[in-house]
Amino acid sequence: MRILFLILFLLASSAGAYCQEPDLQRNLVRTPEVGIVEHLGDTIPLDLTFKNENNETVSLRQLINKPTILSFVYFDCPNLCSPLMAGIAEVISKIDMNIGEDFRVITISFNTSDTPEKAAEKKANFVTKISREHQADWIYLTGEQENIAKITEAAGYKYKPQGLDFAHPSAILIVSPKGVITRYLYGLTYLPFDLKMAIIEAQKGIPRPSINKVMEFCFAYNPASKTYTLQVTRIFGSLIIFAAVVTFAVLMIRSGRKRRRSEA
Which of 67, 64, 163, 157 shows the shortest CA–CA distance to 109? Predict the structure, then answer.
């Protein structure tokens, strides 16, 4: 019985730790400083101009004429941006659709310090899995703060400077040939089937809600202290609950075996 009471105590403690987070989460939903606010069905401003990796001025209207995977990064990111771009490269190498024919990829830097030269260097690291004739269909863009702010706001992509780096989420958007946001895919890796369906939906201009909204963050934002820290409460609480459930299951199995032996 002592062990059972201990398990219940741990569960209650974990629940208490969780209960401290809903208000925090609700605040983030209301006015998130870092994260994604989905704008499904909205049209991004296609007349915004940026510099591509060849230092050419291009508008989004020129580039988006087919379903397009849109991602936001900054090139000196020490955490998520490289894995995100690697995840895009991996999934488009596996999908049974052709980049340049069925869809296009656009990666926009939200750091005004990034240059077309940096964009070209970063692009070279991630297009190796794409055939040379289609590498031009993964376009890297840099721009001025005004246009960066407009496109990230339209996309619902919330990021925040943190020292020399940025706190930001990991997600990609799929937009239709007319620039309508039709799907968000979250995380750092993506299933070929999910991306294929998202591209097909974008071709039809059909917005679909995201089922899996698990995001990675460079930093976890704490609105109370206005700082970015590793969010360990949820991780620790999950581990405690898991251990408690396993322990309880083991005790129940052993108790059942002893009862059967005594009855025999």
Answer: 157
Of the candidates 68, 95, 70, 79, the one whose C-alpha atom is nearest the C-alpha of residue 190 is 95
Rounded to an integer, the average pLDDT of 102-127 is 96
Residue 98's closest CA among 131, 126, 61, 141?
A: 131
The closest alpha carbon to 175, from 43, 21, 62, 75, belongs to: 43
- N-terminal to C-terminal alpha carbon distance within the chain: 24
Are 14 and 27 within 8 A, CB to CB?
A: no
| The domain made up of 35-218 is a member of CATH 3.40.30.10 | yes
Q: Where are the domains of the chain?
A: 2-27+224-263, 35-218
Going by DSSP bridges, is the β-strand pair 68-73/171-175 parallel, antiparallel, or unpaired? antiparallel
Q: Where are the alpha helices (H) located in 115-232, listed in sequence order?
A: 116-126, 145-155, 192-204
Which three-class secondary structure state does DSSP give residue 193?
helix
Looking at residue 253, what is its pLDDT? Answer: 81
- pLDDT above 80 (res 23): no
